[in-house]
Amino acid sequence: MRKWMVLLTLSLSMFIIVIDTTVMNVSISALVVDLNTSVTGIQAAISLYALVMASFILIGGKLADVIGKKRTFVLGLAVFGVGTAMASVSTSLMMLIIGWSVIEGIGSALMMPNIQTILREAYEDKDRATAYGVISAVGAVGAAMGPIVGGFLTTYYSWRWAFRLEVAIVIVVLVCCRYISTDLRRGSRPKFDYVGAALSVCGWSTIVMAVLLGQSYGFWLAKQPFVIGSMELVPLGLSVVPFLFLIGVSLIVALFSWTAGRDESGDVALFRPSVFGTAGLKAGIAVRFIHMAVMAAFLFTMPLLLQLSFEFTAMETGLALIPFSLALLVSALGGARLSSRFSARLIIQTGFLLAIAGLVLIATTVSPDAQPSDMATGVVFGAGVGLIASQILNLVLSSVAPDQTAEVSGLNGTFEQLGNSIGVALVGTIMLGTLTTGLQDRVMAYPDLEAEAKVEITHALQNSVELVSSSQLAEAMQDAGADIEQTAAILKAYGNERTQSFKIGLWFLVFLSLLGLIVTRSLPNRKLV
């Protein structure tokens, strides 16, 4: 039993990291009410959590070389515990963002890359294969259970109990960390690439922040000025977003240039860009990026659709997602058994085809008259993304030499979380933009309004539209003094445009999945045995 205590410790850690990324998705409506915020605010918190992880994963991997894998892992676990405890008592969106998105995100980033390296050193041969299989299964179970656990706790207790449950698991893992062997130092302590770390954090953060700010400030033309103190920034009438995006890309280019120079000179670098020269590695990481973007965006869109269009509770939302969760779990675990019979590329391509079919089925079903049972077609999508998950990580890591595994794992983790963050940010922006444009078009087509009033209303809609349920909108109309006839007309118009926004969001995911399918053509065509 003692032999497998390291695996148990790391499995519990993987469980809380994975479940933390999905458990709050079914609680969006409750979070909006309890924290007096909006769907856009919760979307930002979800995206920022993944963004912080993406920015710090490489740092977590390299920090292990300086202070040791166990110390870095335990430090990350402690930071995660502080963050989740703070999130559990949040009284505002900002407090939730600091606790969950920032502090927990940093803790997860310090733990994630060291789980695999500790596992690799703790076990050998068949034991190592068993350990990796268990960790993969725990990841699949965590992703599948997140919506169900979150829905149950939010409906019958409070969404805060999801974070409190994580605190309890953190305490158990901290006690069990004594079973992890202490690192033995060989030679002098290696240096840390502070410049590379700064470029990585600033570059990735700026890119994702540009995407998040697009819906408020415009992706090209400025919707409103960007204010810093008393200074308003509207350069040439353009939004600040394209400038931020350009700055972010420039920082990432500088990061690759800096690390390449240090790699060539033999100095310590945050990572070695030369590993991207490995055949199929870039395609593998790109496929994983798209895979995570599609899955994260789906897990943001579907709970919103169920809670706003059908007014489901968090528990009902979690139960409605069970077909998706079960299909994901069964497909992820069962897909590994196909590795010896079919090439990984073929299995991944089949997964994308199933994911596309599932998304098309849902997108064509969504309408103002749709029934909640129509969303059960998510089972097809779940089977597809589960098949992809069963192969892609193993394919990426098996493409490189054993001494490059830790580094490539960190790079892969960075792009996984970037996909997660950008996927949620983009689909939320697209849906809100579609809703705003649709309502503006309806106002402009309304015959009884004067031209001047139409301009004023459309301008007001540009910065004030939010995704809300029909009951929330009806309550707001009642507070505003609208009569029954006006309320009914507005509810119908808003409901139709909200449905259209969800459809466009789902079709965007179809496009992303098609892009992923195209990229798979560059994957190595071999079996994973």
UniProtKB/TrEMBL annotation:
Q: Name one Pfam family in it.
A: MFS_1
Per the record, GO CC terms? plasma membrane
Membrane topology annotation: Multi-pass membrane protein
Instruction: From the record, give the transmembrane residue ranges.
Output: 41-61, 73-91, 97-119, 131-155, 161-180, 192-213, 233-258, 279-300, 312-334, 346-366, 378-397, 418-439, 504-523
Alphabetical list of InterPro entries matching this protein: MFS (IPR011701), MFS_dom (IPR020846), MFS_trans_sf (IPR036259)
What would be an example GO MF term here? transmembrane transporter activity
Top-level division of the source organism's lineage: Bacteria
Q: Which residues form a coiled coil?
A: none
What keyword terms does UniProt attach to this protein?
Cell membrane, Membrane, Transmembrane, Transmembrane helix, Transport
Under the heading PROSITE patterns, the entry gives: MFS
Statement: the UniProt record of this protein carries the keyword Ligase: no
Is Transmembrane there in the keyword field?
A: yes
Q: Where is the Major facilitator superfamily (MFS) profile domain?
A: 6-528
Spell out the subcellular localization from the entry.
Cell membrane
Protein name, please?
Antiseptic resistance protein
Gene symbol of the encoding locus: qacA_2
